[in-house]
């Protein structure tokens, strides 16, 4: 999962050692019930994302409700803090957030459905891949540097058309206790379309309020193993903070830095921030050139 084809590729040091050795677990009956509920909800997904069968407002509401239900079936409780003003404009918005797990997509969908920029092999993940295609995922293969400008152009076109697009600028998943820097390349789409960016803080916490790593999808873990652990965990809350919009400006590095500061504002740990910044600075120059 963290194999690097080029020096510019995002890489995370997070792996199996970041995952809890003995996380709090629910009993077998509860876990089995969660499995059945998740399967039942997933079977309805094609109907809730079925293109033009529903008008757009109804389709977005259905997707939001679907994500809420699936999160609860998996035992994740969602809290949202909205710090935005009341004068937010309509139209296309680029949503950016930290990346911890595949569940981040469900979390953001529950808050504000969007088209996602996601790893290209997600489209091959069986039912999840079929759902991703119906949700108009924009695939990105970070090992293929030459394709990055095409991805940026697709995001730009959707923003200009008034759509919401969500991306994870760290470029790979981290455990939540450590994190990477926001890479600037995808922010060029917001600048080209002159559309604002919505930074979203995202944190998984346990019952004591400390960072929980049980939902993390890191290292070489399979999606099946991640799902099994998730459905056995106990008492994880997903804390979402909707920060004020950031105007695009004309410099993608500056825009990325502003959004990163916004989502990290409530984080602790200067050493972790410096770690993420070091990874960002040493690996970002090639990606910057590719996005031009």
Short key terms for the protein model shown above:
292 residues, alpha/beta, Glycerol-3-phosphate (1)-acyltransferase, disordered C terminus, lipid metabolism, acyltransferase, transferase, Plipid/glycerol_acylTrfase
What features would you describe in this structure?
The chain is of the alpha/beta class. The protein has one domain (16-290): 3-Layer(aba) Sandwich (Glycerol-3-phosphate (1)-acyltransferase). Helices cover 41% and strands 13% of the residues. It is built from nine helices and seven strands; from the N terminus they run ααββαβαβαβαβαβαα. It has helices at 28-48, 56-73, 103-111, 126-134, 148-160, 187-193, 223-232, 252-264, 270-290; strands spanning 76-82, 93-96, 115-119, 138-140, 164-167, 197-205, 236-242. Strands 1-7-6-2-5-3-4 form a seven-stranded mixed beta sheet, sandwiched between helices. The protein starts with 27 loop residues before the first helix and ends with a helix. Residues 268-292 have low confidence and may be disordered.
Quickly name the level 1 CATH class: Alpha Beta
User: Can you tell me the overall shape?
Assistant: globular
The helix tally amounts to 9
| Strand arrangement across the biggest beta sheet | 1-7-6-2-5-3-4
User: Which stretches of 5+ consecutive residues score pLDDT under 50?
Assistant: 268-292
Number of DSSP-assigned strands? 7
Class computed from helices, strands and strand pairing: alpha/beta
**Amino- and carboxy-terminal Cα gap:** 27 Å
**CATH architectural type:** 3-Layer(aba) Sandwich
Rounded mean pLDDT score: 79
Rg, Å, rounded: 18 Å
H/E series, N to C?
HHEEHEHEHEHEHEHH
Q: What's the helical proportion of residues?
A: 40-55%
Q: What is the CATH fold-level name?
A: Glycerol-3-phosphate (1)-acyltransferase
Major β-sheet annotation: 7 strands, mixed
Binned strand content = 5-15%
Return the domain count. Answer: 1
């Amino acid at each position: 999962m963290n194999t690097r084809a080029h020096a510019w590729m995002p890489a995370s040091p997070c792996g199996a050692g970041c995952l809890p050795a003995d996380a709090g677990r629910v009993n077998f009956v509860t876990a089995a019930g969660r499995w059945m509920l998740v399967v039942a909800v997933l079977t309805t997904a094609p109907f809730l994302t079925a293109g033009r069968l529903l008008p757009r407002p109804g389709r977005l509401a259905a997707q939001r409700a679907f994500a809420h239900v699936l999160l609860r079936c998996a035992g994740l409780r969602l809290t949202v803090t909205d710090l935005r003003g009341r004068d937010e404009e309509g139209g296309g918005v680029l949503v950016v957030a930290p990346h911890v797990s595949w569940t981040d997509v469900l979390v953001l969908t529950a808050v504000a459905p969007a088209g996602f920029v996601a790893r290209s092999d997600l489209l091959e993940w069986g039912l999840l891949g079929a759902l991703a295609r119906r949700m108009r995922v924009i695939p990105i293969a970070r090992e293929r540097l030459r394709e990055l400008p095409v991805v940026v152009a697709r995001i730009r076109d959707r923003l200009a058309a008034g759509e919401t697009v969500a991306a994870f600028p760290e470029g790979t998943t981290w455990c939540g206790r450590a994190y990477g820097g926001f890479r600037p390349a995808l922010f060029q789409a917001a600048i080209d379309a002159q559309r604002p960016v919505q930074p979203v803080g995202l944190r998984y916490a346990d019952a004591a309020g400390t960072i929980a790593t049980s939902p993390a999808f890191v290292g070489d873990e399979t999606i099946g193993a991640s799902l099994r652990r998730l459905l056995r965990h106990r008492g994880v809350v997903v804390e979402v903070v909707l920060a004020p919009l950031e105007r695009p400006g004309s410099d993608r590095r500056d825009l990325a830095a502003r959004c990163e500061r916004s989502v990290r504002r409530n984080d602790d740990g200067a050493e972790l921030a410096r770690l993420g910044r070091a990874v960002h600075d040493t690996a970002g120059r090639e990606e910057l050139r590719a996005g031009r």
